[in-house]
Amino acid sequence: MSLTLHYHPLSSFCQKVLIGLYELELAFDKHLVNLGDPVSRAALLTLWPLGKFPVIRDEARNRTIGESTIILEYLDRQCAAAPRLIPAGVEQALECRLWDRFYDSYVEVPMQKIVGDRLRPEGQHDPLGVEQARAQLATAYTVADRALAGRTWAAGDTFSIADCAAAPGLFYANKVAPFGDDHRQLGAYFARLTARPSFARVLEEARPYLAMFPG
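Request: output the structure for the sequence above.
Response:
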């Protein structure tokens, strides 16, 4: 197999790439990384010195690529025909990239701040940081809710890289800061995401690990 994804099923950024792989129907192997195991961590560092996952290795092209958005951009280029995660049209492609960055930066980042604080030892919590993260999430929910009016998916009528980013971020964010009644568009969009076969498959694969999530 040419493509190997180095990942963990619980990681939202790994889930983002998995959704894209399933949407594109690309054949690939999976290599589960256990950062708590010194041997597994060392192998990842050899492959990708930053020690972050997901990482994809393409043996056919002798390429190693990290960062979820760049991985999906790379994979999308391997597919000449539909389905595509990034439209060919410049304006629509920019819209998809905008919402990809939005969900990564303004949903994922504050969500991870809240979750990370729960993992801190007693006496080392950051209540101000958590308060700020919750405020940022609330703003992001409102912005997304307004943008989703009249749209089926994050960037329009077609499932895209933006939805790959949105699905896992919203899944975990909704656990630590649930959507309010004033976010009806966002709630309906999330329901469509969870019903999407690619994301449903990702959630099923993550299920054995969900007890590890401190939410």
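The first strand starts at residue 3 and ends at 7.
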